[in-house]
Each structure stands twice: as structure tokens, then as C-alpha cells.
Amino acid sequence: MTLTRRDFIKSAFASTIAAQGLTLFPAGKVFADDTQTIPHASHYGPFNAVVKDGVLIGVQPLKDIDPLPTKMLLEGILSRTYSDTRVKYPMVRKSYFENPLGDHKPHLRGKEPFVRVDWNTAIAMVSTAIANTIAKHGNQAIFSSSYGGWSHAGLMRPQTLQGRFFNLIGGQSACSGDYSAGASEVILPHVIGDMEVYSPQTAWQVIEDNTELMLLVGCDPYKTNRIEFRVADHAMHKHWQGFAKKGIKFISINPQQTQTDKAMASEMINIRPNTDVALFTAMSYHIYQSDLYDKAYIEKYTVGFKQYLDYLKGTDDNIAKTPEWAESITGVSAKQIRKLAEEVIKKRTQICAGWSLQRAQHGEMIHWAIINFAAMAGKIGKPGEGAGFSWHYGNGGMPVSGKKMPVGLSQGRNPITARCPVVLISEMLNNPGSNYTRNGQNLKFPSAKLIYNAGNNLLSHQQNTNELIQALNNNVETIINQDPWWCASSVYADIVLPSTTTLERNDISSGGTYSNNKIYAMKQVLKPVGESWNDYEIFSALAKIFNVQQQFTQGKTFMQHLKDAYAASDASESFDSFWQKGVTHLSTPKVADNWVRHSDFYHDPIKHPLHTPSGKIELYCEQIKSYNLPDCPPMPEWIPPAEWLGNAKPEQVHVLSPHPWMRLHSQMANADVNSYESVDGRQFALINKDDAAKRGIKDGDLIEVYNERGALLAGAKIADNVMPGVIYIHEGAWLQLDSKGRCNSGSINMLTSARPSSGLSQGTSANTCLAAFKKCLDPESPNKAYQPPKIETEKSPFDIKSLGLAASLKSIKSVKQQTQSKGEKIFYHACTMCHAAPNPADHSYEQWQGITRSMFPRAGLNPDEQAEVLKFLKQHAKQ
């Protein structure tokens, strides 16, 4: 490729910018005529990109919208724009390139160079792999690991476009559940009639006016609200600061003092990880034994109290669940347990529980135990009280406008119903066709032969990395990764398709997770880096090969889709005006400031029952009992996990893997801001000072953390605000294995187990993890995770005809075009953007009624549209 003088100057300018760092420009700065400010938006916040001569030179925050922009926005987006970790061209792993139809040596994934190819070759190879897989094994052998929608904040997310393409050619096997809240999203509809973990919380103003105590349980909103599924605006901070000024007391149950605890001056109760069920069980016992529980509330709003009381009293096991019993499990004194239970009873208390609690073996039990305690205390549904499970997510407490936001293209119905819980991907690969249970259903794993991964870092997400790599190499014929970055999922792929970042194309997004009060233009800022294509172009090209391009594009351009999406929203401003300004605002009704979670149920449980079998809070659930699961009882019980401090060896500690401060999972790991997360270029491990001293480890030392599943190297960061016996390694570091198989970068999933929480949800148990650690004296090199692999050029042009693509395509049966009811169209269009489209049979109709009460306002559906969706779900829900 020949560079013009102008291209050379721009390239040199970009290299200089990357080396010296980009510039943060203050809001309101006026620029010279040769400099543009272009509106854009991200998970980290909205901003104006500052561009000169076609090169991004800085960002300008929108302080009128986002009063507290983070460094992820101000510096992270800038530093990764011209990173060496960009995949600039289509790439094929060397052995795959040399023998795409034969033995392409999968055991060399992650170990050998890539060959740069042109787009025609890449699309032909991808199409051939898809066609051959379908022809030999059927569509169920195409497995999508692109379940998550976190790749960027826009409408045209890759997992949605991927689902749309594959569903037009006969479907693909897909994921079910998620890593975020896998246990609770299944158990809580049985208990309280909604997922809860993805539901709006009581409005901020109600908390400020009524709440006396906020009990944080594994909950750190100051950290986790730094990003949002759509566009963060960090609106929660002023309200939480207002809570503190008002005199609301904060108590935090956590092995670590968090950023929220520091800001709110929380009273700390350090607890052993994975033992919160025992704590809340003992608190329930104490308020019963002390006659402090609300008998009238129990009678009116709950079922199953007798069975739960028998468990508390130890009727069957002869173990009363006293505070003394819990002390030996939790490490929290019996005196402190009694004091806490009584304080919650006496004060108007809002319990704020994080999702991290349920990412554990038997994770279904903890949020249920909190609900049982809150119900016995008579709290749920009252102003400023109750139990909430998404205060730390999406500006929990934000008044909800109820307005309709723009929605991207529909995935449509997937003709393939086979699916796999995200945590069980390795098990699926190792045991294709075997049985598993989820939410009371007996299901079978698909037999996956091709994995398509778009905008999702499977090699970072999945627990037990060594097990996953082995399962991929032993069972999967082709791995295709579509991504802008040389993350681990690219490095371990066979074919890598370079997708653009949102800075290199147009899109639209909207405000917050719950608020629905703004729509943002994500205008193209730069030309695509290298030969990157946007996700829509990639799947359109594949759709053309498979003769479904007309159905995929509907004969419209990309911008026409964006304009249609905007026109279908509740925005009143013209598209042209909105596009020029970059943002339009939608009003929120004043009544939203007074909204209380479960208030209707509290005021009239007959007229507004919960969508549980009884219509009430199920302290004991007969439906769960009917599933007869050995690892998920019909009420919240303390069940010792396989790995916890109660059975740890003397040299072991409990390893927790919370969200990072300066990343969104593995996003931003290749940015300068990741230095906050690092010690000498590796992910840090936060260690109690006494644990470090016992092992002769000082701050900044390199350590090796290991168990039977794997090992990693990390930098020691010594602290006195974490309890002894517990270390913290933030999830999301990129993967790089040394010759001994240790991750040289500190990727936590080298240690975590892929053991599911239980046979009910099959959720992750990542936080149930023991390991030992020691000072590392034998590192082989600096961390190389953020260096691209070796790239080779074609020695001779690839012969596309040798793939036999035309014959492969002819062997595939044509797919009958879907006919969908109005409700089905709305469901797959408006209600399934976050993850892979859910199967209606994942939940009963009763449960869908509860779940959609939270989903419909976020989707902005009017009453007629809601009725159509419910009609569709009633026909296709789990029976």
C-alpha cells in the first residue's frame, strides 16, 4: 500500500500523539477554525471529541450533563485510540491460513503468528467455515459467545447484529443467563416476582426524605456507577452526598472498606466472604426470638413463614440459627449481629445489596435471605425502606422518565433453541449433548463446532481459563473473533475481523440505564483505523454471501436505520437539530420523584399481587421444592461452599475478584489509565498487611498466586482496610501465559472455578475461590499482554476458489422467512438489546409478568405494545 505525503504526516502526527499523550480540553474552550469538536458518547460518559487534521487530539467533557467525568473518559478513550493493540487488518492464524479445510493445529492457538489477509479472503474464510459447519453439523453447531452488549454504548451492538444475521440463515446456539447476576435473576422471580437485580430502585428523593439507615451489603455504588450499560452521567453522587448531609447513617458489611464506605463514613462490619447467608439468617432468628419481627406484615404479605421458622429454630437439624452459631461462620461477633438486627428494626432502613454476593456457590441463597429478613422486619414496600439489588448499577435511585428511547435493529427469533448457561461453556464443549438443568427445566447442551465471538472477550469473562483453552482446542474447529483489539479472545482465535470503535462510525445512544431522559448522537470522529470495518458492514457482507442481505439491511443505509430509530422514540426535536447538537433531553414526570419500589403491593396486595405463585413474598417456595435440586433448597439456608475460609488450608486465602476502578471489565486494560490498576505493569493484588508480612512480602513485590486450577503473577499492594485471610484481584486483566503456564498479567480467571452456583440458575461462583500466594522470584519477562502477536504477510495470494465456498453454500437448505406476530416483533426488537435474545421459555408467564413490569418502562412501551408482548409471552413461556 502506497502512502501519500498527507497520509504520512497524519500517521506521524498520530504516533507523536500516542507517545506523548493526548490533551484534555476544558468545557467551553473555543478552538481555531482548523479544529473540530464532534459530539460522541460512551459507557464512561458523553463528550466532544477534539479533532485536528483528521486526528483525535483530545476530549472535552460535557460538564452540564456529567459533573464528575472519570479518567476513563478523559484519558482512557484518548490513550487507547492509537494503541498498538488495535487489530488494523483482517488476520488469520498461521496454521489455519495454511490449511483452512484440514488440520489447522488448534493446540497452537495463542502461540503462533497471524497472517494478514485482505477482506475478500477473510469474508470467504469466515463464510466457508460457517457454511461447512452448518452443512456437516447443523446450525446448532454454530455457537455464539457474544452474549453481552457491553462492547459500546450504541444501538448497533455487535451481538445484536450477529444474532440478526445468524437468525436469518437458520440460527445459532446461544448463551443463557449472564455473569453479572446469574443466580439472582433466576431465583428472585420465584421469591418476589421480578428479577430485582435489573429493576429501578426507590427514587432518591424518597430516600432522602425518609431513610435513617442505609445498610450496604457487598455494595460499592461509588465505583460501579462510574460506568453504565448506555451512557453514564454520574448523577448519583450529589444525591448520595445529600444522604450523608441529611444524617442518614451508613453501615457496610464487607471484607473491605470500599470507596463508597470512605465517602459515606460507613461503620464497617468485616465478614468472611460467602457467609452473608448465615449473618442474615441469624439476624432473622434474633428478631423472632426477641419478638421484634412484624407479625402482621408476615401474615399479610408472605407465605412459608412456618417452614422458615422451623429452619431458624433448628426443628429438623437440631441447630438453632443463633447469633452465636453465625459468629463461628461469619467472624462477626454475636453481640454485633444482635446490635445490627435491632438497629435495622428500629430505624427506617434501606438495604442495598450488591451482585457480587451471589457470584458464589449457592449464590441463590443470599439475596433470598436478605428478602426474608427484610420481610420479617416489615420493611418491603415502605417509603425509604426495603431491600434493593441494583443501587450500585445504572444510577440506582434515578427517577425514571418512562419515555421511549431509540432501539436498534431486531435480532429476530432464533430458530435454534439450544443454549448454554455462560458459566458452563467449557462443560458444554467437553460434554456436547449432555443434560443439564436450569430454572426447573431439563435441557441439553448443543454440540458446538464453530464459535463466533463479536464484541465480547470470552477469554477474559469465562472462569477457569486453563479449562476453557483446553476445551476450545479439543472440541472447536473454528474460532472467529470480531473486535477492535488484540485482546485474549483475538489472540486465541483462528480468524480475527477488525471492527471499528464507535469513534470511527456513527451511532445513537441514550441516557443512563434507568433514566431514559437523554438521547445522544455518537457521530463519527475519525476514519476507520487501518482497514477496520464497522460491525454492520461485516455482517452485511456475510449476509450478501448467504443471500440474505436484503432481509438484513431491509434495503436501508446505516444512517436510515439510525433516523428510523430516532423517529420511533419519544424525542420531539428534529433529527437534524439533534444530530447537530449531539444531545436532546426528554422530561421526567414529577411523580417519578416519589416512586417507591413495591409500594403498590404494600398498599394493596390483593389488587397488586406479586407475580409469584402465591402473589406474596415466598419465604419458602413450593415451586423450588418441586424441582428437587440437591444444591438449591426451597428456602434460604446456609450451605458451606466447597471453598471458603472455614475449610482453607493454613497457606490459603480467599480470593475475591471485584470490578476494577479504571476499567469496564477488560475494556481500558490497554489504556494508560490501567496504570492505576497495576504494579510494575501487572494487575495488583490487594493484600492485608499481616498476610503480607507472614510471607515476607513488601508493597510493590511481585507475587505468584496459585491453586489447582492455575497460577498468575501480580503486584503486591499492601493495605490495612482489608480483613486478614482475604485478597482482592480485580477482574479484567488481559491474558499472557509464560512457559510455566502462569498468567504474566494477573488475569484472575486463571484461579476461579467454573463450578456453577447450583442446578437452579447455573450462575457463576467466581467469588468462591481459595488460593495460596508467595513472593515470585522467577518472572520470565515483563508483562506482554498488551503487545500484539507477531504478524506475517502472505507469501503468495490466497486462492479463494480452493475453499469450495460455492459448493458449501449450495449444500445449505434455504431458510423460510420468519412470520412474527406484533408482540413477537416488539419483544425481539425492544426488549432484548442487553444480551442474547432470551428464550420466552426461560421463565413462566407469571414470572414474565413480573419481569416485564421493570422491563417495559425501560423499553418505553405504551400499554397496547405491552399487551401485545404479554400475549406473545403467554403463548411461548415455560409451562
Question: Would you give an account of this structure?
Answer:
Pfam families: Molybdopterin, Molybdopterin_N, Molydop_binding. Keywords: Metal-binding, Molybdenum, Oxidoreductase, Signal. Residues 655-769 form the Molybdopterin dinucleotide-binding domain. This is Molybdopterin-dependent oxidoreductase. With 879 residues, the protein is of the alpha/beta class. The strands form 8 sheets. Strands 7-18-19-20-5-6-32 form a 7-stranded mixed sheet. A 6-stranded mixed β-barrel has the order 25-30-27-29-28-31. Strand 28 (702-707) and strand 29 (710-719) form a beta hairpin. It is globular.
For the largest sheet, list the strands in their spatial order.
Answer: 7-18-19-20-5-6-32
Separation of termini? 60 Å
**Averaged pLDDT:** 93
Radius of gyration: 26 Å
Helical residues, percent = 25-40%
Structural class: alpha/beta
Shape: globular
Number of helical stretches of at least 4 residues:
31
Tell me what portion of residues adopts beta-strand conformation.
15-25%
Number of strands: 32
The biggest beta sheet reads:
7 strands, mixed
Indicate the low-confidence ranges by residue numbers.
1-22
InterPro entries: Asp_de-COase-like_dom_sf, Cyt_c-like_dom_sf, Molybdopterin_N, MoPterin_dinucl-bd_dom, Mopterin_OxRdtase, Prok_Mopterin_Oxidored, TAT_signal
Organism: Shewanella schlegeliana
Protein name: Molybdopterin-dependent oxidoreductase
Family: Belongs to the prokaryotic molybdopterin-containing oxidoreductase family.
